[in-house]
Amino acid sequence: GTGVTASSPAVSQANTIRTPNTRKVAILAENGFSFSELTQVINSLKNSGVQTEIISKNLGMITSTDGQQLEVNKNYVSAGSIMFDAVYVPGGRQSVDSLMVLGDALHFINEAFKHAKAIGATNEGVELLESSQLQGATLAAPETYYQLFSDLGIVTIRNAGDMGYFSSQFIDAISQHRHWARQHQKDLTPA
User: What is the mean pLDDT of the chain?
Assistant: First the structure.
């Protein structure tokens, strides 16, 4: 019949062991990104079976602060936040300054937030989240050093060089699939 089968998403998701495997992360970066941050996080994600795609305004190559290049996988025309399970914004002053005036990037972050997906940002990347509409989430403040904030599936750290701790917490947030607590937060009243 057309009843609920064991393979229906609702049933299988309730019974699955939460794992980051097969998850897809969109990485928003422009020229002037931090190569060290980005590659540390990508490597950690890959080691956990998470796929990553770099999304940028233009296809082709983007160049890091120290002149290293990475290939862009998609531009905003071909990539919607709906296609990904999580978003990561690396630091790098010039990259983040470009992202902050890019409506598509802000829209991407806001959509991911609305759909309860994990969002991560490191160093200057946190500023993009600050200029997005992430109501109620606590983000790492500029004066914090290596202090990780994980709130409602949003993982942020500032003034950090080693991305190991951030990556493990971000992978943890990705493993939890969706962060629906975000949605109900405004309805919660203290008991």
Answer: 87
**Length of the chain as a residue count:** 191
Dist CA 7 CA 179 (whole Å):
22
Interacting residues of 41 by C-beta distance below 8 A, sequence separation 6+:
27, 88, 90, 120, 122, 163, 166, 167, 170
Per-residue DSSP letters for the chain?
--S--TTSHHHHHHHSPP--TT-EEEEE--TTB-HHHHHHHHHHHHHTT-EEEEEESSSEEEEBTTS-EEEE-EETTT--GGG-SEEEE---HHHHHHHHT-HHHHHHHHHHHHTT-EEEEETTHHHHHHTTT-TT-----TT--S--EEETTEEEE-S-S--HHHHHHHHHHHHT---THHHHGGG----
Q: Which amino acid is at 50?
A: V
What are the pLDDT digits (tens) for 121-143? 999 999 999 999 888 889 999 99
The whole-model pTM stands at 0.85
- At 127, the amino acid letter reads E
